[in-house]
Design goal:
- It is built from 3 helices and 6 strands, in the order E-E-H-H-E-E-E-E-H.
- It has helices at 45-61, 71-81, 129-136, and strands at residues 5-11, 36-39, 87-89, 100-106, 112-117, 122-128.
- A hairpin with a 5-residue loop joins strand 4 and strand 5 (112-117).
- Helix 1 packs across helix 3 (129-136).
- The relative contact order is 0.26.
């Protein structure tokens, strides 16, 4: 069984317009995303969520890529680095059903991630990359 997920890349200033902030329902802000990336496998937080957080840390700490201010640039790197045969890019948020939607909040070097459970219809994680790694890394 596959746990499907979508990932959006959105500038963090967009969250300031909503009471829920980074915990907003992704459907309300999907039109602000620079990418709608679908991954067919391991969409739970210890899978894709942790992979995204570790990717941000690697980009910053290993590759020296500390500038996360341009979401269009981050989106292109994310798509390239997460490519495999079951990755798709969709033109909108409504093309495919998933279990989780992740938002990578760019705009500062302090990158945050939120996870929305589509089945529970609620935000199940919001926080910094470091918080996600420390909470869900089992290595």
């Amino acid at each position: 069984m596959s746990t499907r997920s979508k990932t959006f890349v959105i500038h963090r200033q967009e969250a300031e317009k909503y009471v829920a902030g980074f915990a907003i329902n992704p459907a309300e802000i999907a039109d602000k995303s620079y990418v709608n990336m679908y991954l067919h496998h391991d969409g739970y937080i210890e899978g894709v969520g942790l992979d995204i957080a570790k990717w941000v840390k690697q980009m910053q700490d290993v590759k020296g890529f500390t500038e996360f201010s341009d979401p269009s640039r981050i989106a292109s790197h994310l798509v390239k680095d997460f490519h495999y045969n079951s990755q798709y890019l969709y033109p909108n948020n409504y093309e495919i059903e998933v279990a989780y939607t992740y938002i990578l909040w760019c705009g500062k070097s302090d990158v945050w991630i939120s996870q929305w459970s589509e089945y529970e219809d609620k935000c199940t994680f919001v926080g910094s990359v470091e918080k996600l790694i420390s909470k869900h890394n089992t290595d």
